[in-house]
Amino acid sequence: MLTSAAKTKFTDWISVAECPDLRGLLFLGAAEQRITLYSQQVRALRTVHALKELSRLEANSRIAVVGAGAGGTTTAIALALLGHRVELIEQATGILHLQSKSQRMLHPHIYDWPRAGSLQTHAALPIMEWIEAAGGDVRKALDSFFLAVKANHTNLTFRPNSTVTDLTRTAGKWSISVGAAPEEYDFVVLALGFGDERVIGDAPLHDYWKSSDAIGAAVDKESRQYFISGNGDGGLADAIAVHFEEFEQVAFVKWFLSLFNGPELAAEVGAIFEKVPNDGDLEPAFTETLLPIFLSRGVVKDIKQRLRKDRTVTLNCSKILLQKGRAAPLNQVIMFAILKACEETDQAVTRTLGAITNVTKAASNYIVDGPAFGTSSAHFSDVILRHGPDRAGRYKFCSSFYDQYATYIAALKVSSADKFSPPELDPASFAFFTDAFRAGIADATQATALDALTARQKTTIIVNWDDSVQKPTQQGTQTIQEMCSRCSDIEAPLVIHLALQRSRIPEFATELERFARASGGRILLEASPATFPSWSDSGVPVNPQLTFVSPYRSNELPTVAELRKLFDTYLIQRLDAAIAHCAAGSCGVFKDVHPSLYGTFAETWSEWKLILEGDHELRGKFLRVLARAIDDGSGWDGAEDGFVDLVAGSFLIMAAHAGRSATPTNSRHGNVIFQGDAIGVASGCKILDGKLISDVPADEFWSADALILAGAYEEMRTGRDLITDGGVSSRTLLTSERVRPAIIQNTRRWRDALKGDLRAWIANIEAEFQDWKSRQDAQLEKQP
Q: In this structure, are residues 530 and 545 in contact, taking their beta carbons and an 8 Å threshold?
């Protein structure tokens, strides 16, 4: 049974592909802004998953997928793995024919920047997986997968060299004509790609998938003048490329991002895109915020040194060059940096606005006409027009249906613009198709390996250094925050895989190791072979394991402060259970305690727990002193013997509270206050500064009025009989004012006192505090 949220999600996915009046006809990515191989694959998986979960597909449904690009092929495989009869119809001889010989580098996530994970080289898809490579190599990998699935699924038919000439609808069914009699289908998925670029006049057509000497030549024989029109990804990518010799986009992007040492650039770009409205001009915000960063990091200077000297460039667009929503933030940021670098040369980029009405070839030049040049024309060596694909031409065989769909989509973009954000693969979809793929695999060995990988993916969080945002990130079914917040309830062990050097996150690593140590095996640590040596001496077992590809989105790590808060919360939960045992008459450190004392513990701890849970600073202070006797910023290291000491310290302070009312405090001199007039240190610590805590002079080292020390088994050593008053400053410059504090400790005297009833215990506590008060009064009388 689908939840309401899940039903809404799946319905939204279908809504961008299917016009309600054209039920059963789906357009895959025909109206989307983001044009990448990966994004088309994600759209395919989301669409099929939604159809299945919404019960749109029947067991005997016959489905036609027209177009064997990345989106169409992924759609066909997904449907076939689910057991449906599907025909993949393609006019070329094989799948992904446009990429078959392409040397253009493909990267699955690079246009997702500044989002974390945008330099991850794996697509991280459950089927039709690929990694960063030249287009031809990506096509070979996907074709190999396609052929393997096809060989094992007779319900998948591939019809190459087939051109659809007509699409009709009769009585709710769809019919396709492929050079013969029409064939009927229950669903038709049109995955025709985005169409060729629209051409004006004699302007040359620059194929995206083929290398172009006009753009990437190592050296021009003579100076050339480029006119590039369009502010989408195609136009900006070409405008970037023409400025550099032998340009390769992925390598250039990695170089550009490597110029920034830290997360500042990604964070600032993210903030700008949050602030600037859709279709707004990004350049003023870039100038105000990014330019100072570029200048301080020497980015403009570094780009300037790489600029070609043999080309001049004119950039044209209809309105705003760097317009939010028109192109990927990455291309817009890089283009801005190049514009600023060019301004410092004698080859500044010329910028024009307006429509292009005609391009005429004249000898070795092109003549460009349009409002941008007034009544005159402009001459250029090369013209590159990126005004978007001719989608209407691509869907000519079903033009009436496409027009109806386009009208519907135009209205949907106005009412629900968020539905057209660049798509991400939902973890539920990844799991759904992983299960479908596993069920369709004939090779038992491969199925076993997939089961093992799936188990790791579900139980492991990968911590990595993300070069795209220059900071550590995490990937998993849950976050470290979620894992730690429910540490007490974890049944099967969960794993944190450390795929970065410990030196990248030293403070965070200390807190993470502390949590793992304290978890009692609920949280395990492992590291990649490359990073294992840096983690092997941490004092916590760390297993070396190969890093796997995670299908989950990269997220920021919690801060050190956030992790400490979670650790303190977990410690309170553990103390809660341990103190419940004490209240029931079972405390390991203190034996033969009179039952009448136990009766006070439950109520006391209940009150204190509420106080501590409501104030994280007070909670942290109380627990650090409880563990260490002083607040040096550390606290319990997570070792089990240290927890026993914490329980003992908690027991003794609550017992002291039974005789003299106390409550947690955030004083710099201690962690409890008795009846508002005595600051106390309550701790289970045994060793302090390398000494037994009983050897630390009670009247010289401590600045508290009372010491409740469950780790002090011998009488506390004392020195001079002077005064303290919870840290109140000296009343005279001539006399030190410390006296021996009240001391309740784990000596025979106090253990014997615990064997008496509550009334006798209270008398002992009152006597100890009265003696302390008398010493105070006596010292005060000596003051001049």
A: no
Strand locations in 223-270 (E) = 224-229
Burial class, 537, CB count within 10 angstroms (exposed 0-12 / middle 13-18 / buried 19+): exposed
* Nearest-angstrom CA–CA distance, 755 and 30: 82
Cα torsion angle, 504, 506, 512, 516, sign: positive
The pLDDT of residue 212 is 61
In degrees and rounded to multiples of 5, residue 523 shows phi and psi of -120, 120
Note the pLDDT of residue 728: 42
Q: Name the residue with tokens 């025979």.
A: 748
Strands (E), 290-427: 311-317, 350-353, 358-362, 365-369, 378-380, 382-385
CB 698 within 8 A of CB 741: yes
Contacts of 138 (CB under 8 A, 6+ apart): 37, 96, 99, 106, 130
Percent of the chain at pLDDT exceeding 90: 74
Measured between alpha carbons, how far is 761 from 406 in angstroms, rounded to an integer?
A: 84
Q: What is the pLDDT of residues 236-258, one digit of tens each?
A: 999 999 999 888 889 999 999 99
Q: How far apart are the first and last CA of the chain?
A: 83
* Calpha distance 81→128 (Å, rounded): 12
- Asked if pLDDT for residue 41 goes beyond 80, the answer is yes
Strands 555-556 and 471-475: antiparallel
What 8-state DSSP symbol labels residue 505? Answer: S
Residue 267, pLDDT > 70, answer yes
Q: Which of 211, 226, 203 is nearest to 381 (CA)?
A: 226
pLDDT of 451 > 80? The answer is yes
Res. 729 pLDDT band, cuts 50 70 90? very low
Residue (of 496, 451, 500) closest to 478 by Cα position: 496
Average pLDDT, the chain: 90
For residue 113, what pLDDT band results from cuts at 50, 70 and 90?
Answer: very high
The reported pTM is 0.88
Which class for 600: exposed (0-12), middle (13-18), buried (19 or more C-beta within 10 A)?
Answer: middle
Size of the chain in residues? 784
Residue whose tokens read 């319900």: 155
Check: CB of residue 56 under 8 Å from CB of residue 49.
Answer: no
Distance between CA 770 and CA 421 in Å, rounded? 72
Burial label, 589 (beta-carbon count in 10 A; 0-12, 13-18, 19+) = middle
Q: What is the 3-state secondary structure (H, E, C) of 164-207?
A: CCEEEEECCEEEEECCCCCEEECEEEECCCCCCECCCCCCCCCC
CA distance 289 to 271: 10
| Max Cα distance, the chain (Å) | 117
Q: How many CB atoms lie within 10 A of CB 364?
A: 8
How far is Cα 109 from Cα 380, in angstroms, rounded to an integer?
35
- Kindly state the average pLDDT of the residues 357-384: 86
Residue 722 burial class via C-beta count within 10 angstroms: exposed 0-12, middle 13-18, buried 19 and up: middle
CA 197 to CA 183: how far, in whole Å? 31
Asked if residues 192 and 283 have their Cβ atoms less than 8 Å apart, the reply is no
Strands of the 460-466 sheet, one edge to the other: 542-544, 523-527, 494-498, 460-466, 471-475, 555-556
In whole angstroms, give the CA distance from residue 430 to residue 45. 9
**Chain center to CA of 463:** 10
Residues 76, 297: Cα–Cα separation, whole Å: 48
Q: Which of the 8 DSSP states describes residue 596?
A: H
Answer with the residue of higher pLDDT: 418 or 780. 418
> Cis link prior to 506 (omega < 30° from 0)?
no
Confidence of residue 195 (pLDDT cuts 50, 70, 90): low
Q: Are 706 and 700 in contact (CB under 8 A)?
A: no
Lowest mean pLDDT among 63-77, 323-337, 598-612, 618-632: 598-612
List Cβ neighbours of 539 (8 Å cut-off, separation of 6 or more).
513, 517
573: Cβ contacts below 8 Å, ≥ 6 apart: 488
